[in-house]
Amino acid sequence: MNFLLNSGIPARFQKQGMPSDTSKASKEKNRAALLALRGRRLLDSLNDRFFSGRNEKQTQTFLLLVTALVLSLIIVPSQHFHTSRYNAGEIASADIKATQSYLLEDPALTEKLRSAAENATPYVYDLRLTKSDELKKQFERAFTLIVASRTQSQPDREALLKNLSDELGCPVTPVELASLEKIRNFRALLAEIGSMADSIYRHKLVSDKTVFNEDRRQGILLIENQTGRLLGAGDASITAIDLKDAAIIVRDMRVSGFDRKEAEVVKGLFQKALKPSLIRNQAATEAKRTEARNSIRPIVYQIKRGEMIVREGERISEAQAVKLNKIFNSAQGVNRFLAGLGIFTLILVLFYFPYRFGRKNIRKFNPTLKDLLLLSLVTILLFLFLKIAFIISSAMGVPFPRVGTDAYFYLLPFAAGTMLVRIILNSEIALVYCAVTAILLGVLFNSNLLIVVYALLGGIIGAHGVRQCQYRGTIYTAGLKVSVVNLALAIPFQILSDNLFTSQTLYIIIFALIGGAVNSVIVAGTVPVIENIFHYTTDIKLLELASLNSPVLRELMIRAPGTYHHSILVGTMVEAAAEAIHANPLMARVAAYYHDIGKISKPLYFIENMCGGENRHDKLSASMSALILISHVKEGVELAKEKHLGLPIIDIIHQHHGTALISFFYQKAKNAEDPESRNVDERDFRYPGPKPQTREAGLVMLADCVEAASKTLTDPTPARIQGMVQKIINNIFIDGQLEECELTLKNLHDIANSFNRILSGIYHHRIDYPEPAFKVSGRKKIVESSDREQAKTPSSRGEEDKKTGGEDLKRLGIHR
């Protein structure tokens, strides 16, 4: 966006020089910073208009719809709106009537009729009428092979035996081959074999007459093999012989024109070559059975609307259980889409209206788009985990029949989502989140109101337990509190259901106590993952950053030791002040440690890092000096982003000077000899802002200025410290720097007292020197960190405000 600002560069900045040790790249960087200073308001307005105003709302709407859709898919399959599933032998807890008329299938009767139709289907048999001719042709081809072998000088008998066996379809032995080779008149033999075949296949030949007779009792359909024509049906008119009967017939036959040995060989081969002419067609039989089965339509019976299925306290019979479960399954299939639509609409309502209420009425309820994305993912994963756990717990009755299904619900981590939201975000968002998800959890678990109460109270206590989670052990302590609440709710739940003195109560008590630990384990393992993925800064992360051995603070200590020392003192002051006004002491202290890390790049341009050498600002114009001081905020923000210090710390770095005036260089510019510089624009000597938005940011601003000003005191007595603190706070208040944070006048009074106590403890051992410890050309020492000097009053307030500064101190509740 810099191209929008090129035409607005003040001429005086183009003429002024840069520091002697600054490279060309640094000059360009400072020039860009000056341009950004002029265009910040334009950029912010464009960002608010195009991103925050339209695109962010579209993204939020899309996120809402996707979250609602995914949750609907998770919740809907477990909905049982019309009736509960019962098993035979259970006691009905209420009168159950049919809510509408049903036509329900009777699967047992339907299956019985279908099985009967299937068993009554006749077997299909294929009759091969040409089997006699086929057998004649087999022997003709076999005899042809024998005749052909006689023309060979050395015939291969092994090959001949194999070929004969293949042609006849039965094994031929060498003895049989030798007998056949002696026969000369094969034509006469073929005539005898044909006569024998006609005699056998005059009957219907089957492989096993016993099996055939059993099939005949059920019924037989006789089909011609080649044409598929029905030859007969029934069981009385169809007779057959099997291979055993055929063997007896063949044994009694005579083979004319051949001796006894040859006749026996021929009859033996003929008997082995016989194959059944009547064969069961299994594929056709199965097709007929399937057709018969499918011809039976489902048997249904009617349940009329209002019909009493079972009465309260009645033991459910098998027939009643069938009706109840059939109604249950019918309702599942018919109403699945409508149930999903209803759940989807419910989720939209539960998400949208509490969100709008929170934005309008709850002070700290202001989730960003990243926060909403986190809430969406946490909710989806939580419900998916609970749904899987619900399915598993419902099946646990099989391996553990003594433990009821309801007992496992007390193990589920209902409070884990709310505890995560409280640790990552804040209490306000966590409470709204808990109220919304508790209702949906009740819907997930079969519209159970007790689950709503259980999840709501457990979530509230869990969120309260991790409100100041600075150590991992705090999470487990919170889990112990959730366990106590779980137990406190489990007992009255058992009393309400009249199951207090049952064997299940002991399991429920154990599971309720373990449930709190389950929440803690899940939260403790998930928080580091969320911190790394979303770059959130929790109190646990702040403790890691508070280590003075962190890389950023070590670099600050080495390159800018004065700034490092100043930051440590500011951290001590803001921590004490935060405790006094009930702000976040840890956040304030850590932010104070890092608020001036932008000075690492140019440490020698800040007076606290000058070791008695020359002041580099003496060679620079006032505007250029102001630009260098202002740039440390931007560079600090960039370094904090690079080191992933977290958004809260980055915001405080950005806001800790607000829009304060760099008064020293502003007055220097106004008092310059160049007439043009007398028309200096005050906005060029103010920090770009924004002003502090939180109490912690306001504390860092106040402590930053007070600590820097305290080093100008030549005799830091308690009275002088108190006057200095009152003056600095009063000037910041009059300058309007605290307008956008939540510090009240009472808070400012408590902050002043806290600062007085800390500074008096630091300086109470100092020696009262006989003369001022620091003089420069007869002038009073300037503020040691010139970038922190505040304007006593803004130019727009006039001389009247300057005269009434003392009165303003009184209005703040601070007395000299």
List the helices and strands and how they pair.
Elements: H1 11-15, H2 24-75, E1 96-97, E2 102-105, H3 107-119, E3 123-127, H4 131-149, H5 157-168, H6 174-182, H7 186-201, E4 205-206, H8 209-218, E5 220-224, E6 230-234, E7 241-242, H9 243-252, H10 260-273, E8 278-280, H11 282-294, E9 300-303, E10 308-310, H12 318-334, H13 336-361, H14 369-394, H15 416-424, H16 427-444, H17 449-465, H18 472-496, H19 504-534, H20 539-545, H21 551-559, H22 561-581, H23 585-594, H24 622-642, H25 647-655, H26 663-670, H27 695-710, H28 718-734, H29 745-763, H30 798-803, H31 805-811
Helix pairs in contact: 2-13, 2-14, 3-11, 4-5, 4-7, 13-16, 14-15, 14-16, 15-16, 15-17, 15-19, 16-17, 17-18, 18-19, 21-22, 22-23, 22-27, 22-29, 23-25, 23-27, 24-25, 24-26, 25-27, 27-28, 28-29
